[in-house]
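Q: what sequence does this backbone want?
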C-alpha cells in the first residue's frame, strides 16, 4: 500500500534499517531477525537505506524484497547523487518487480572522497523526484528541522522543500532531532509557504555517548540542555545511558503525538531491542493514536 494513502487514514509508525557492512550470510540473517522483531511491533512501513556512493545497493534491494515478503511495506531509499539515469532505471525496475510501491528520493550525502562530479546527473533531490515519477511510486523526501547543513538559512532550505513537494514528494521524513521545538517551527513555516504534504518526525534514541559526535557531524542536531545534563551525569554508566536515551525518545514521541505529528519514524540503527523497548513504554499511546 502506498504511504500517502496510509497517511490519509491514520498516523504511521515506521522504522529504518540499513544493510550490513559485511556481505556475509550471517550478517543478513541477523538483519532479517531484526526485521522479524520489528514486524511484531506493528509498523506501517520499514525503510531500508544504502550507503554513500551507492554502496550496498544490491543488498538494499534484497532487503526490501525480504520486507515485502514478510507482508510489510518497504520504503526503499533511492540516492541520485552517485547514480546515472541508467542505474536509477535499473534500480526502479528491480523495486517494481518486487512489488515495492514506496521510495524515499535523496540526493545523498557527499562522501569526502568524491569530487565535483559526484552529482553529475542528479544535483538535487528534486531532479531525482522529477525523473523517477514516471515509475508511479509514492515518493517521499527528506527534510531538516534545523536546516540542511549546506543551506545558508532555514528559509532557503524551506524553498528547497517546496520544490521537492512541487516535483512529486507526497510526504517527508525529517532528519533526527532532539529538540521538538525545531520540528514545530519547520511544520509551521512549511505550512505558511503552501507545503501541505505530511512531515513525519524522525527520532533516533541517543543511547550511547559514542553516537554524539557522529550525530553532530552528520546533521548538526542540537542536543538540548536538559539532555546534555543527563548525558554528563550518566555517560559513565552504559546501562543508565541507554535508559536515558530510551526515556528521552519516548518523551519526544509523546509530545509530538500530543501536538499533532502525522506519525513517528524511528531510526533503529538495526537495534530492534531499543525500538521494542520504546514501543513497550508507549503501548497505550500507540494503541490509542496509531491504530486505524
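A:
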Amino acid at each position: 500500500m502506498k504511504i500517502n494513502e496510509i497517511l490519509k487514514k491514520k498516523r504511521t509508525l515506521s522504522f529504518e534499517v540499513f544493510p550490513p557492512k559485511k556481505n556475509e550470510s550471517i550478517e543478513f540473517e541477523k538483519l532479517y531477525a531484526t526485521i522479524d522483531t520489528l514486524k511484531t511491533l506493528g509498523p506501517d512501513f520499514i525503510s531500508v537505506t544504502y550507503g554513500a556512493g551507492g554502496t550496498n545497493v544490491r543488498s538494499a534491494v534484497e532487503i526490501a524484497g525480504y520486507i515485502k515478503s514478510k507482508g510489510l511495506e518497504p520504503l526503499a531509499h533511492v540516492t541520485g547523487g552517485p547514480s546515472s539515469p541508467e542505474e536509477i532505471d535499473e534500480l526502479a525496475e528491480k523495486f517494481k518487480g518486487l512489488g515495492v510501491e514506496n521510495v524515499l528520493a535523496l540526493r545523498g550525502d557527499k562522501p569526502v572522497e568524491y569530487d565535483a562530479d559526484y552529482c553529475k546527473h542528479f544535483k538535487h533531490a528534486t531532479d531525482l523526484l522529477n525523473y523517477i515519477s514516471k515509475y508511479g511510486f509514492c515518493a517521499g523526501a527528506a527534510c531538516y528541522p534545523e536546516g540542511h547543513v549546506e543551506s545558508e538559512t532555514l528559509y532557503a532550505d524551506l524553498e528547497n522543500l517546496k520544490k521537492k513537494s512541487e516535483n512529486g514528494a507526497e510526504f517527508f521524513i525529517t532528519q533526527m532531532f532532539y529538540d521538538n521545538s525545531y520540528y514545530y517551527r519547520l511544520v509551521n513555516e512549511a505550512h505558511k509557504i503552501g507545503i501541505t504534504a505530511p512531515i513525519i518526525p524522525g527520532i533516533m534514541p541517543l543511547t550511547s555517548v559514542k553516537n554524539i559526535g557522529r550525530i553532530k557531524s552528520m546533521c548538526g542536531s542540537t542536543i538540548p540542555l536538559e539532555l546534555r545534563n543527563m548525558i554528563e551525569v550518566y555517560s559513565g554508566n552504559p546501562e543508565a545511558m541507554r535508559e536515558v536515551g530510551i526515556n528521552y525518545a519516548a518523551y519526544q514521541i509523546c509530545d509530538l503525538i500530543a501536538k499533532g505529528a502525522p506519525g513517528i519514524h524511528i531510526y533503529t540503527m538495526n537495534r530492534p531491542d531499543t525500538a521494542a523497548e520504546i514501543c513497550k513504554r508507549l503501548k497505550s499511546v500507540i494503541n490509542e493514536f496509531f491504530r486505524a
